[in-house]
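Researcher: Please predict.
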Amino acid sequence: MPGHAEKVIRDFGDEWTTYSQDEVPAEELRSSFDDYFRIIDLKALPPDCIAADIGCGSGRWAKLFHPHVATLYCLEPSSAIEVAKRNLASAHNIVFVRSELESMPIPDGSLDFIYCLGVLHHLPDTQAGINACASKLKAGGRMLAYIYYSLENQPFWFRALWHASSAIRLLVCRLPHRMKIAATVLIAGLVYYPLSQASKLIERLGADVTNFPLSYYRHKSFYTMKTDALDRFGTSLERRFTQQEIRTMLTKAGFEDITFSSGKPYWCVTGVKTPRPL
């Protein structure tokens, strides 16, 4: 498994080097940020807040989050840390750390807030990753996570389409990087774009598009579609969890006051570290 994990890290380094997010429109980045952070009251963070972005990638979320805290650790195990450094060069309250999650050189019990978006479901042991995050938080500290859902709130036909796409992922993720880019651009152009535009049209006609495939992208740029197609089909390790499974993992790690976002992307969840030891 260590070699497999190294490949996953390398793949994500390639992803954020290819799509550094500098072409994402500012309003779209803000909208996506709000989708993930809407269950957090950023104004309630302490004025001297010390936070960490676990798996910062290109630094796209840190770009909007860092003004809310005194210090932000941006932790990234891949070569994408260099992309983040370039994208966040004007931010003076960020400490860049190249490290894997479970060995991050941040003192235990030192953080007020952690966010870990789109990372935990790519780990061989998601519970261990959550435990590692919990160990770095102070008692009363809060964590925000985005973990792939198991489609438990979707109809049968939607889940069947996903299983078909997952079979394609297992083929695409094995391709050399350049071929992987070409394949995922093709997927973005032939699948993401037509379905997202169809859902936009259907929405304009007054219909509910909540369960329409890829409706989440109806107001996103093609650049984001290419990025997310690579993110979805380019990785060899992907795990999915029900809301109850996520709640159980967070509880085991010592979190309480666990709250899930009611909207996409699923599942965004937040919890508070209890005073009791793990």
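Model: Residues 109 and 138 are 4 Å apart (CA to CA).
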